[in-house]
Amino acid sequence: MMDAVTIADVSFSYSGPPVLERVNLTIPEGEFLGLVGPNGSGKSTLLKLILGILNPQQGSIRIFGEHPERGRGRIGYMPQMTRFARDFPITVEETVLLGRLGKTSAFGFYRKKDREFARRAMDEVEVTHLRKRPIGTLSGGQLQRVLIARALAGEPDMLILDEPTSNIDMRMEEDIFDLLQTLNKRVTILVVSHDIGFISQYIHRVACLNRTLQVHQTTEITHDILQSLYDHPVHMVAHKHEPFEEG
Amino acid sequence: MDFFQALSEYNFMRYALIGGLLASVACGIVGSFVVVKRISYLAGGVAHSIIGGVGTAYFLGFSPMLGAIAAAVAFSVILGWVSLRLREYEDTVISALWSMGMALGILFLSKTPGFNMDLMHFLFGSILVIGDGDLSLILALDLLVVVVILLFYKQFVAVSFDEEFARLRGVNVERFYLLFLILVGLTVVLFIKIVGVILVIALLTLPAAISGHYVRSLNKMMVLAVLFGMVFTASGLFVSYVYDFPPGSTIVVLAGVTYLVSLTFCGLLRQTPIR
Questions:
Q1: What percentage of residues in chain B have a pLDDT greater than 90?
Q2: ipTM, 2 decimals?
Q3: Of B158, B212, B217, which is closest to A101 when you measure between CB atoms?
């Protein structure tokens, strides 16, 4: 079996001190990996490197054995919802169809096949009944599912989700992770979160990032590991309304 | 003589109406993207700097419309590049290029004999002197804009809605952004005869913005924006004929008043964010 992601000795800095230092990480196919770390720990930077939006100054990254710019075609990406223009006039179905880009013909409109894949993806995350709705009218949890459907529409072998449960309530959060657990039967999943207490029951391993990266089996996570990651006392179950202080 | 009698008797009135209706098509489609992507300032820059191309063409003895098309393409690419590469200084650099383009055009025009009338035409439009050639040019640019948009509709939507996702799905975001700005430039050219480069930004954004008050999907927004554009140009022409107003300005005032009324109406009706 091939590794989905191989990160070897990667360092990165924008134009100051290093954001990432000698990061090593291998994600085998079929894994459900959590990536956690406080704000400013380099999570977004690492994601951008994996997706080939940034290039590492040192070290190498391979996605399914290829350079990220080629390999990322096999990744379904779900960005953070907060970065979203929710007043954009676009329906759920049109949003999900965007996931077909790269798989469909470059010219003209979407084909019948694209609509079928979009339909299947919407069925899978149970948003088919919303397909004619403008995205501006959806609840946080509904939009989150739509964005997962968009990522699934491109028939990915791996899903990368950036904070999939920010801005939604606890019950919705459980629903989303139950869904991800089902999807994990056929795709590799990397999920970024700062709610480690909650996700630890779903993920296989957790990668703790704060400039450097350490990977733990979820059974190994102890209070001490978390504390060293966040540089100050934390609770095992993070509270969203309790802002992390800069360490 | 009333408006409809004039329409049936005078070629120039018919040409004015047909020209306005045709131009509304490209305007509604391109304008919808300009509004949802929020680049009306950039579009304004492209529109005004076209005067630079017009002036240069006059001075060198080329056709001014040819100069306008060349400038539309050149300034779209330059301004697009600025907006992609120098995001922090975007507004300053666009302002500089915007006014420099115009100033350059006026410098060249001032060194060309008999420039005064022509400059006014390019700035404020001359819908009543549209000829056969102008109609053919409007039709050709119209077709070009519509065909390119239809051909790459998916990519244009993706780039306007979620640039990062589009890039990850293999869409060349920069290329489509520049291509879109070129279409904006060409749409402006198509409107030069009708309302001129100063007022064109109103027709590029207002019909689409009004549509955005009532529909929540891009393709419906486009259809409605085309219809609004047609209503504004036709009724503007009518009002300007009856009261002997300049047609270009009448069209723009009608569009502007409708936009403000619609904005107030929608703002009172619901508390959702509107454009």
A1: 48
A2: 0.85
A3: B158
